[in-house]
Structures are given as structure tokens and as C-alpha cells.
Amino acid sequence: MFMIKYTSPFLTKLEDLIAESDYILRYEKGNFKAGYCILKDQKIVIVNRFFSLEGKINALLDILRTVPLDTTRFSEKNIKLYEELTKAEVSI
Question: Domains plus CATH for the chain?
């Protein structure tokens, strides 16, 4: 079972995961109902920049679970993290 840590280093790890994929992550202001917006055609993920640290982490976790990412460019540690995060059972 994987433990989620609501810390800046953990947020950085999630950002690195998306950076190694074919998606671009941006923090911008907006009134997205879920707190984030995914432009699949342009492969851009936008997260509300006014979110708390916990809100940003939860938004990125949602995105990682719902958007299939191309893992061919992932480093070994990011492949392992991605597999842990996308497993069905995650403990908060």
C-alpha cells in the first residue's frame, strides 16, 4: 500500500512525473469545477494555482489516475512511482 505525503517534495515528484510524460503542466487561475482542466488534444494540464499544497497534490493524483500517460520516457524511479500511484488501492 502506498502512502501519500502532503509535502512540497512529493508535489515535486508528481510534477516530475507529468514533465517526463508528453503532457505540459501549468498552474493558472481559473474556476475549474474539479480544480483542474485537461486539454487532451494539446496535451496540457492546468491546475488552479490558488490551491493549497494538499489541493494541488490531490488534483495531480486525480489526473495521473485518469489520463493515460506515455511512460516510455519515464526514468526508472518514475515508472515505479507511476505504477504505485495508479494501483487501485492508495492510502491517504
Answer: 2-91 (3.30.2010)
